[in-house]
């Protein structure tokens, strides 16, 4: 039987050099009926044997291990035995860089491992860990076809239809809002790196901790024709610029006279998240109305679905990533069911579709 069969728990191999972490993760995963640990390993050598013997649905993988670092081992998994991987990473600047590389290389998701009071901290993350493992097992994977990207991967080529609009994109008064969760690092990387240099000002919310969003913005900036930064309170939203919501703070679009600006605040979590895609989309619906373009990408849960529906109700154009190209077809699916998605397209056509929906300027 497979992990997709009703009532069959997801089979997990836990790889971590810490005996304490292995015990804690095993207790968390075995304590939920949706998951079961079939093997543990302290290093890649043991892990390789365990994966070969048990053929798991998901692997949880520590980034820092003896004998071979987690990224090198991840590359071997993606190349030789494609299996959904959830990375276990540290909440540090170095950990953020490595985690982002892992997500670009094909890892489905990550759990940020606190550096202090590990026993209690991991216990509090128990539901998140199980949810991410279950989502990874059910992901619509194209593992064999995925790029082993890493930090040096080339940016996607800009579509010809997008290039044709370069001359008008910066003069429409439009603003784009994008939201993503599981699988969002690779998805946003492809979309933003494909947009032309004077595409409309773009606000992005992705579910990431604060230690990660700044580095994510820097990595996107290096790959993109647009200028990408972590959003700051009061930033004026300009064509050719992308503003990434900082982890732990909601990002909203507000009007300031004839301009748009970024507003950041530490409100309550919405749909379990801060930053929340719903908060961003609701603000764009209110501030931009029919000048808005909403894009909902791969992700677990329903964050963004209600906000995208409101954007469409206010006259905005809306796009959802299609099921086949999603890592997890959760957020786009619910948005579509609610009537919030005007057009559903593959990831490779999202940037092209955004540009094609821009209003043509009056001569």
From TrEMBL:
Matching PROSITE patterns: CHEB (PS50122), RESPONSE_REGULATORY (PS50110)
Compartmental location: Cytoplasm
Residue ranges constituting the Response regulatory domain according to the UniProt record: 11-128
Predominant cellular place of this UniProt entry's protein: cytoplasm
A GO CC annotation given for this chain: cytoplasm
Function: Involved in chemotaxis. Part of a chemotaxis signal transduction system that modulates chemotaxis in response to various stimuli. Catalyzes the demethylation of specific methylglutamate residues introduced into the chemoreceptors (methyl-accepting chemotaxis proteins or MCP) by CheR. Also mediates the irreversible deamidation of specific glutamine residues to glutamic acid.
Keywords: Chemotaxis, Cytoplasm, Hydrolase, Phosphoprotein
Family: Belongs to the CheB family.
Species this chain originates from: Azospirillum doebereinerae
InterPro entries the record matches: CheB-like (IPR008248), CheB_C (IPR035909), CheY-like_superfamily (IPR011006), Sig_transdc_resp-reg_Me-estase (IPR000673), Sig_transdc_resp-reg_receiver (IPR001789)
Record EC number: 3.1.1.61, 3.5.1.44
Annotated domain remarks: Contains a C-terminal catalytic domain, and an N-terminal region which modulates catalytic activity.
GO BP annotations, alphabetical order: chemotaxis
Record GO terms (molecular function): phosphorelay response regulator activity; protein-glutamate methylesterase activity; protein-glutamine glutaminase activity
Protein name: Protein-glutamate methylesterase/protein-glutamine glutaminase
Catalytic reaction(s) noted: L-glutaminyl-[protein] + H2O = L-glutamyl-[protein] + NH4(+); [protein]-L-glutamate 5-O-methyl ester + H2O = L-glutamyl-[protein] + methanol + H(+)
PTM-bearing positions, type 4-aspartylphosphate: 62
Active site: 181, 207, 303
Post-translational modification: Phosphorylated by CheA. Phosphorylation of the N-terminal regulatory domain activates the methylesterase activity.
Pfam families cross-referenced by the UniProt entry: CheB_methylest (PF01339), Response_reg (PF00072)
CheB-type methylesterase domain location: 169-361
CDD domains: CheB_Rec (cd16432), REC_CheB-like (cd17541)
Domain of life: Bacteria
